[in-house]
From TrEMBL:
Keyword terms, alphabetized: Carbohydrate metabolism, Cobalt, Isomerase, Manganese, Metal-binding, Zinc
UniProt keyword Isomerase present: yes
Species the sequence originates in: Lunatimonas lonarensis
Metabolic or biological pathway: Carbohydrate degradation
UniProt protein name: Ribulose-phosphate 3-epimerase
One MF annotation (Gene Ontology) recorded for this entry: D-ribulose-phosphate 3-epimerase activity
Family statement drawn from the similarity comment of this UniProt entry: Belongs to the ribulose-phosphate 3-epimerase family.
PROSITE patterns linked to this entry: RIBUL_P_3_EPIMER_1, RIBUL_P_3_EPIMER_2
Highest taxon of the lineage: Bacteria
Function: Catalyzes the reversible epimerization of D-ribulose 5-phosphate to D-xylulose 5-phosphate.
Database matches in InterPro entries: Aldolase_TIM, Ribul_P_3_epim, Ribul_P_3_epim-like, RibuloseP-bd_barrel
Coiled-coil blocks: none
HAMAP family membership: RPE (MF_02227)
Classification of source organism: Bacteria, Pseudomonadati, Bacteroidota, Cytophagia, Cytophagales
Sites where the protein binds substrate: S8, H66, G142, F143, G144, G145, D175, G176, G177
Amino acid sequence: MRPFIAPSVLAADFANLQRDVEMINESEASFIHVDVMDGVFVPNISMGMPIVEAIHRYAKKPLDVHLMIVDPDRYLVRFKDCGAAHITVHYEACNHLHRTLAEIKRLECKAGVALNPHTPVEFLTDIIQDVDLVCIMSVNPGFGGQKFIEHSYKKIERLKKLIVETGSSTQIEVDGGVSLENAPLLLQSGADILVAGNFIFTSKNPIETVNKLKNIA
């Protein structure tokens, strides 16, 4: 099965955001990945509700919104209203994760949980059947262009084993340092969705790069 590709607009040209969103529309990407950072949970500030709404205005692909923020429950409804189809929150940022996931689903969005590199997948054992996707952070969150963390392969394998053992339909998303070089092993390890930012937007032909990731052997 071919992977789902989610280009991350964190690496887009913000002065030409409409152009870059329309580029993704023309590609074989499945989703548009939108990183929301608050400068507290991660050491960077990216985009808020008005930018997400602007992206949605031109997007023909579902928005995969990744909230790297503290207290995400305060903003779930607002991001839904801005056009989010998927809302992913961080395990490390939620005091009552099951309740947060239930609220995301009540809003009729796909509910995702992201895990930082140091967080074991086993922490999701009791809720894995309530999660639509798990985002494995294969870099430390906050900045694009970082080097892929090699132990992520084993982490993906453990998560896939947990999903199979529990009969869950959860998809595995990988975010950070994804490239044509490591994509085959990521898929072999169990990944379903590949998020790529700099690798796509700094390439000579971003559409071709997306399509190559989509059709990787």
